[in-house]
Amino acid sequence: MKAILTPEQMNILGQLDACTLANTIETFHERLRNEGFTDNSVHCLFPRLKPMLGYAATVKIRGSAPPTADGRYSDRTDWWDYILSLPAPRVVVVQDVATKVGLGSLLGAVHVNILRALGCVGAVSNGAVRDLPAAEELGFQLFTGNVSVSHAYVHIVEFGTPVEIGGLTIQSGDLLHGDLHGVQSIPSDLAGKIPAAAAKIIAQEQELIALCRTKDFSLEKLRAAIAQSRS
Fold it and tell me: 3-class SS at 197?
């Protein structure tokens, strides 16, 4: 299991917007700038909710095809024990590996309430979700490929293994952040260093923005301010 952050560290990270967080992670040069976040196939459904931050509980599902021997797949509850084995807060990450991705939804009103009771603050999926008002009312953030009216034949095939959502590979226990801009992972060895580095970036950006809004603005002053911020 990766290092667990203190509540204070989690609170600070949870107040950062995704763009500031991404800019901060870049300064450590630990990964390429085109890595570590989901692409535009994954959408934030509740952009007005505060940023989501939690440890990933990974699940794989299928749901487009009916079972061959019976009218339904057996329900599994063992994945709930797995979720509780991870530190809180938790984010459920659901990869739909069906032939028709997103035809049916694992997450609806009942499951969202169950997951909230299990300490989950949101979910990320390449597939579908449904019962959106129930999730929004709970403040349960959803990042998804699409929405669906039905659960179809959705069933869990495995959990706790690596998944891929929107081009981002996510391991069980990864620290995830998401807001209206998208979802990204936070390298565990950088998490404790990010708040101080982010504060510096925010201060530099505010200085540049303030300069752009003054009557004394000039390109010479702007270039000088940018050069100073990069020194």
Answer: helix
